[in-house]
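Morning F.,

Quick status update on the modeling queue. The single chain you submitted on Monday has been processed. Sequence for confirmation:
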Amino acid sequence: GFLAPEQWQTVPMEGNDLGYDVYLLSPYRLSLEKYMRRNAVTHLNAVNLGLDLCAAAAICRNAGYMYVDFKPSNIFICDEKEYRIGDLGFVALNSLTYASLPEKYHSPYTPPEIADAFSALNDTMDIYAVGMILYQIYNNGQLPVHTQEPLPAPEYADREMAAIILKACDPDPAQRWQDPTQMGQALVNYMQ
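Structure tokens below.
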């Protein structure tokens, strides 16, 4: 579910700073953000995107981390319309309640309960982001306004797909899918 860098390079930091700058190098891939500016995402590609993102989130969780920066600019299209994460943005699961989300990671895909840098992270924020990405695709490229109220159904999602997306984007974290494999299984069942 993640793009592997092909090469890397470390360079000592300049001045009195201790440590290294690390550069990860990989071939150019088209981001979902750029793809969506020029092309419509088909229904099948949107479902496959949801499945790929749920699988990447599950792999990350199985390794003891959560990916907290899901957004179209960090998702890349590989061969055969495979979607992969190509950015760093991990938090250890065992430190979620003690961690905060730096301002640079806040986006329209961040859940409303993570409104500021002092908000505690939770274990459904990755699911919320995946749901918002699908919401945007099924809502003619438009994101809804963040509120504490349930969102309206995306304009072009059928009833079953809207239910999956709206559960992922519920303003109450307790009402969301609690694990990315649950959301992934709902998408599989939808396709069947």
